[in-house]
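Let's see one such:

===
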Amino acid sequence: MNKRLIALLTAAVLLLSGCSILPTSGTKQFVYNDTGTAGKSSINEKKLLKKLESSGFIPGETQQNTVATQFSITPYSKYGRTLYLLVINGNENYLIYPDGFSTEEITKDFGDDLTLIEQGTKNIYLAATACGADFRAINAIGNIAFSSINAKDWYVQELRDSMNRGSIKFAGKYSAPDYELLTDSKASLAIESTMILHTPAVREKLIKLGIPVLTDYSSYESSAEARMEWVKVYGLITGKWNQAVRFFNEKYDTIRKVDDMEKTGKSVVYFSLDAENNAVVRTSTDYIPGMIRSAGGEYAFSGLTSKNKDSHSPTVSITFEEFYKTANDADVLLVNTTIEGEMKSIADLESKNKLFSDFKAVQNGDVYETSADIYQSVDKSDEIITDMHRIFTGKEPEKYFTRLS
């Protein structure tokens, strides 16, 4: 997507407030293009600002996020109507416009600089499964008409029920959507995860077919609270902004109360095993270690970063030998079994590698597996953190973890 408009609109807001952060060289650094590498876009500030002013947009005050860093929302008025500029990942620009607002002039003036989405839009193709919980949180399941996964793979019960009733249809995987179904049914919007960055041709084809594409970057947030704040994005799009703000504020307050509870000092490892039984652990800046810290624990792999400095992957695969050095003395093991399948006992874990029998947590019986729905429950992050806190204080978890015996 062309990156000019965000600089234009940002310049307008900043000039109105008497300051500017745009570089004087006329270029702006951004992070992602289709190759996933850094690039630059040329910006002529004065020319673009003049274009904005001549287009009649009047900026309001940008909505201040509480913790999320990967999106911003700024209201604009034109012809007495309120529109919203939604900027995602610093360089993907969406204009959310009200029902009945003519977009012909905007399309003519800005073309590919801006993706237009009608507020309250329905017939959405949801290809970012982590977002399903956000729609549940604001009672907007009815805005979704198509899914990239089958009913059996949904752990958001309301979405599974809607698919079983036929009100939401399977429209192909994110990497191979059913274009004919989506176009014949007049899909209004495709919401994709960052996995779409690996299949840019799919994104481009959807756009050519007249289906706007919004990429969800909530996975780039470093805390559960920040991921939860993305409910505001979907509240804005579906016309349920007030519900989204109210939901987030309530959940945020709950998490803060958990965060104020006792710090147990328990050393915690969160991991899974791949097909070769190597360990897959989370980077220390990922939201899962953040949840562990909020729950009063200490993430054992502190300081761990991706081996590829340009990667945004939240996981790192390490040899079992490397894993053993750190995890052997951990107080608690949290085993992510959502990929390789559930375990019924510690014996199942030891069958993967006999060295697990040496682990402190195994010997003490402090090994827990995750529930299948944990990654589709972003709206329940406060409950997941509370469950972790129960584990770290010697109590039994209630829903999202199960002790292995």
About this structure: Confidence is low (pLDDT under 50) at residues 1-50. The chain is about 35% helix and 20% strand. The first helix runs from residue 4 to 16. Residues 34 and 197 are 6 Å apart (CA to CA).
